[in-house]
Amino acid sequence: MSDDTRLNKLQAQTSFTAEELIELGELEDAKLKTLVDSGTQHWGNWVYNPAEPPSIDYKPQQYEIVLTRIDSTAKLGDWLLHLNEKNWITAEDLGNLVKGVEALASIGYHSIHGRGVA
Fold first, then answer.
1. Phi and psi of 76, rounded to 5°?
2. pTM of the entire structure?
3. CA distances from 105 to 9, 18, 90, 99, 101 (A)
4. What tens digit of pLDDT does each residue of 19-40 get?
């Protein structure tokens, strides 16, 4: 059974064993890594840019945030407040930035908890 087929089957379930939860997490992380690496994973208008230094970029304004500048939840909050002052950002864009940073942290591409990238 392919990873995508197994992932779809697990996602359709309503209850899980501990082993299935671990497998589901691993499959979801692997799929997200593939999407991020291919440049097809977007969070609204935000996209991961693996070039050095890695960043998360806001495409409509060509606005880049180097990920090392968001190395704590407090700094993420500071960025949200800063961006909220811009007349071109929306509440949805701010929410999508949080989703992107959290997703990148979940697969080890970034850390917002001060522990560095896995």
1. -60, -45
2. 0.68
3. 25, 22, 23, 10, 6
4. 777 776 776 767 767 767 666 6
